[in-house]
Amino acid sequence: MPLSSSQILFFSTLMLGTLLSVSSSSWFGAWMGLELNLLSFIPLISSKNNQYSSEAALKYFLIQALGSSIIIMSASFMMSSSELATTLLTVALLLKAGAAPFHFWFPSVMEGLQWNQVIILMTIQKVAPLSLLSYLLYSDNLYIVPAAIIASALVGAIGGINQTFLRKIMAYSSINHMAWMMSAILISETNWLLYFSFYCLISSSVAILFNYQDAFHISHIMNHTPSSSHMKMLTFTSLLSLGGLPPFTGFIPKWVIIQEMVSSHMFIMLAILLASALLTLFYYLRMAMTALTISSPKAKWSVKSSISSYMTPSLIYINTFGLLAPSMFTIIL
Length: 333
Known about the structure:
This protein is mostly helical. It has one domain. It is 73% helix and 0% strand. The protein has 16 helices and no strands.
């Protein structure tokens, strides 16, 4: 669907706000970028065709405004107690990024969005908070971040098991991936950028597949006739790649993070991350096996005939990159 001129304008200012936050030399400039990003995303998620978009926009605005107010409040403690100010800044950034234990708003907001808006919330909207968090961690050693990593891993793994709505499953999946990304931030900026890049590609490809299938519930992804076997296989490989199952593409960044965490002697945190990854693979496999093996021609939810011919090869290559080019493992590592 072509974008309107207003959507192009707001998306441009959203990207500008993200760029301003990442490149700012002061916390005031970073706060301005976060506010510009917030005020640009609200019109993008407001839609007349979706009755839940207004509720999602209001929830998102209130939570992000709370995070911004905490950033402003932390500025008053900069001179008296730098440790308290840094802790408040970290809490605000974790709240804005949707990491546990401040994740309560993320699944409910995701449930009221369309898939193209879900992609923006899962990828672009995490760039500025995570970048600012990485700047903060390199200057101050915080103990709240390891606790947030463990909480995000457990919440993302356990919370998605009992879900049947695809957008909520993707929300808890994103919370679990947040744990891996924050662990990468603790190691180095290069590892974080590597993991985040792979996560953006794979999660966007899964959301694009669900969008073309008009699937919002786990039962919707089995409503394909046997003739659409390529769509079944594409959904199967994409979900396993998002789960980080070797030798698909999603395993490459996890392999790098596992090796770096072993080298840094972060064994307890790594054990929790690996255990949570096994739990996430459970609901990924539940969706993937449903998409691959079950066909129900009785209900046709999808109004789109098929995914475009140029999109299919690119999605296949993104999610099977590790399988098709295993030599890249040795190059990256």
